Amino acid sequence: MASYNNYIYWMLGKYFPSTCLVAEENGQVLGYIGALLSAEKRKIFIWQIAVKSEERGRQIGRKLLQSVLLTAGDMGIMQLEIAINDKNSSCRHMVEKLVQDLQGTITEKERYQDEGFCETVYSILIDCIRSKNFNK
Ligand SMILES: CC(C)(COP(=O)(O)OP(=O)(O)OC[C@H]1O[C@@H](n2cnc3c(N)ncnc32)[C@H](O)[C@@H]1OP(=O)(O)O)[C@@H](O)C(=O)NCCC(=O)NCCS
Q: Is the C-beta atom of 104 inside 6 A of ligand 1?
């Protein structure tokens, strides 16, 4: 996953604090999710999720994503989108499994293609997800 200038992460944390989150343990950052609410589309776009390589498989990514889905529900935002690289089956599995467990729906929406870079944009509908379904 590409990481960007610190200024980008400062801006995300400052202006999107409910949906840009870190997972911490003993003062160490183990994972991160960056998601942004589009006011005009009434959708949240999940831009980045990353877990430190040695900490993967501990449900950290799932919990970060779950927190954003819960926040979306609390905000009355029922649609989210995420672009996942076609080669990234671990991320796709994580997202599909969580949405399925929460009885939401996930569908392919469109494709983004650039030189050597191919992503599918998935639309997540959480209409039936309410806070009671979450163990935050
Ligand atoms: C994708 C990523 C965020 C997953 O984080 P994670 O904390 O390791 O994932 P979790 O432990 O929460 O896994 C949740 C579910 O995802 C799926 N999953 C996670 N890693 C997987 C893998 N390598 N292969 C298949 N399924 C996987 C499983 O269904 C898992 O559920 P289970 O443990 O009950 O089977 C992590 O692998 C990562 O940081 N990858 C590099 C950055 C990246 O690709 N980000 C995504 C861009 S969209």
A: no
CATH number at residue 69: 3.40.630.30
Give the chain's domain count. Answer: 1
To test the pocket of ligand 1, the residue of 62, 63, 67 to mutate (highest count of ligand atoms within 8 Å of its CB) is 62
Q: Name the 3-class secondary structure at 50.
A: strand
Q: Does some domain include residue 1?
A: no
Residue type, 89: S
59 lines ligand 1 (CB under 6 A): yes
Q: Are strands 20-25 and 105-114 parallel, antiparallel or unpaired?
A: unpaired
Token pair for 78? 């029922």
What is the pLDDT tens value at each position of the chain, 136 positions in all? Answer: 558 999 999 999 999 999 999 999 999 999 999 999 999 999 999 999 999 999 999 999 999 999 999 999 999 999 999 999 999 999 999 999 999 999 999 999 999 999 888 999 999 998 765 544 555 4
Domain range for 31 is 6-133
- What is the CA(94)–ligand 1 centre distance, in A? 5
